[in-house]
Design goal:
The chain is an alpha+beta fold and 233 residues long. Helix content is 53%, strand content 15%.
Length: 233
């Protein structure tokens, strides 16, 4: 009986090792499904367990890779089977992606890489449970000088201080500004108050020849643009 159990253990190890090697090869071939990509990631931090059920369960509960990556670390740790180290590992992937996009925005004009700019905003604010307001300051060549966390508020409000934005823009010698904030409630676009404060900031900056290029709202995996919605006219 013990020999049989031992043989089954060897078989299980061989199966898991073979399966993970197949996952790695599928990754190199560019053929991984999203849940398999998550499974591959989890296999590096949970090496002694079959993580396929865990990956599939997370994909079902969170709704995809993006919601998993951007979820707060506390939310990840609430999921059965995800410990502190695994949650930190997942969030480190998030931070690496965010840093990569930020580096790109500092190296080329932001609207030469608008997809990268929108992805940066999504990664920056997606999954947040409280509203955050960020201000991106751009230099003479419209490259990113600084992304400042302007304020953190509640689940439906974050303060914006126009004079502080102007002061910081002058300090950095910025020629343009982008405002970004999130709405934790999915699929909610600009509120009346959002539009009013955007207009105030636009006019205050324009008085010293600094342009407010846009104001973005991140909500439910969507980036809403004030300019595209003709709210800056």
């Amino acid at each position: 009986m013990s020999d049989k159990k031992s043989d089954m253990g060897v078989t299980d190890v061989a199966f898991h090792n073979g399966h993970r090697e197949r996952l790695r090869q599928k990754f190199l071939d560019g053929n991984l499904a999203d849940y398999e990509l998550l499974e591959l990631l989890l296999s590096f931090v949970i090496p002694r367990r079959d993580v396929r059920p865990l990956a599939r369960g997370m994909m079902k509960q969170f709704g995809g890779l993006y919601p998993i990556i951007t979820a707060p670390i506390e939310k990840l740790m609430e999921y059965r089977g995800i410990g502190r180290n695994t949650a930190i590992f997942i969030k480190s992937i998030h931070k690496i992606m965010l840093a990569g996009y930020k580096c790109e925005l500092a190296q080329q004009q932001v609207f030469h890489n608008e997809r990268g700019l929108l992805n940066y905003c999504l990664l920056l604010l997606g999954g947040k449970t409280r509203e955050e307001s960020h201000v991106l300051y751009l230099g003479q060549d419209y490259r990113l000088l600084s992304d400042d966390l302007h304020s953190v508020g509640t689940n439906d409000w974050a303060a914006i201080y126009p004079r502080e934005i102007l002061k910081r823009a002058l300090e950095l010698n910025a020629v343009a500004v982008l405002m970004v904030h999130n709405h934790p409630t999915p699929n909610t676009t600009f509120s009346t108050d959002d539009i009013k404060i955007t207009t105030v900031v636009r006019d205050l900056l324009a008085a010293v020849d600094i342009q407010l290029l846009d104001h973005y709202v991140v909500s439910g995996g969507i980036v809403y643009s004030a300019r595209n919605m003709f709210l800056l006219n």
